[in-house]
């Protein structure tokens, strides 16, 4: 355990809820965790050593000098909640491991149980047929049926059968194996805008998550960030519409190439008629002679 997880000396919180976060579609999960960390001014209290889970695939070169291999950071942050019986732990991973996700999730659950974590939360994106101007809904899943019934009060959508890819989903599966209560909140993102960060989906999740955690967080900065990304979303929507039109529709007007071909055929017919007229004139002249 000491080789895998390093904790601040003498750190032992009271009962906690944990939010665990890794990169994913539209960066929704990291946006949620990072915003909470910054607004709560959460204190760094530990880190997961990366060497057992990550293998560097290259190095950086600066001023022609090769640097040492870099590993992703996986840090643990803590915030004392003065208005509730549980404090908050935030685990934020820079990357997802290529092949050892299940093992990492197990090790994180080990330290979570040691630190008196009662509930774990993850967040993710839900790809949906919505427009970027719409307010995204929040989908929810939980590790037990009674927890599903509990989360209904927060005005979430229960989709029944879904798949949550990566560690933002796998961590909950491991929590279920270990009998730790867990929830996943998924913010809807437009299908045409999955390649860019979506603060609007993160905002929708935080509106639910803060209620579940009984904490107050100023969301004004995230509201502004959501508005600032509207123009980029609008551009992506326009590109998606153009691609749809070119792929699935046919124009009702003649294509330029077809028009050119028709004109060429008409010109050839005129030339043929002219040649026939010239041939007839020559034949008439011969008969006169």
Question: Can you count the helices?
Answer: 8
Number of domains: 1
Strand order of the largest sheet: 1-3-6-7-2-8-10-9
Distance between the termini: 117 Å
Roughly what fraction of the amino acids lie in strands?
15-25%
Q: What fold name stands as the CATH topology?
A: Rossmann fold
How is this fold's topology laid out?
Layout: E1 5-7, E2 16-21, H1 28-40, E3 43-48, E4 61-62, E5 65-66, E6 74-79, E7 87-93, H2 101-114, E8 117-128, E9 138-142, H3 145-151, H4 167-177, E10 181-190, H5 199-213, H6 220-228, H7 230-248, H8 256-288
Parallel strand pairs: 2-7, 2-8, 8-10
Antiparallel strand pairs: 1-3, 3-6, 4-5, 6-7, 9-10
Account of the protein in words:
By secondary structure, this protein is of the alpha/beta class. It has one domain (5-220): PAC-like subunit (Rossmann fold, 3-Layer(aba) Sandwich), CATH 3.40.50.10900. The protein contains eight helices and ten strands. It has helices at residues 28-40, 101-114, 145-151, 167-177, 199-213, 220-228, 230-248, 256-288; strands at 5-7, 16-21, 43-48, 61-62, 65-66, 74-79, 87-93, 117-128, 138-142, 181-190. The strands form two sheets. Strands 1-3-6-7-2-8-10-9 form an eight-stranded mixed sheet, with helices on both faces. It is globular. The mean pLDDT is 86.
Question: What is the structure about, briefly put?
Answer:
With 289 residues, this protein is of the alpha/beta class. It contains 8 helices and 10 strands. The strands form 2 sheets. It has an 8-stranded mixed sheet with strand order 1-3-6-7-2-8-10-9, sandwiched between helices. Strands 4-5 form a two-stranded antiparallel ribbon.
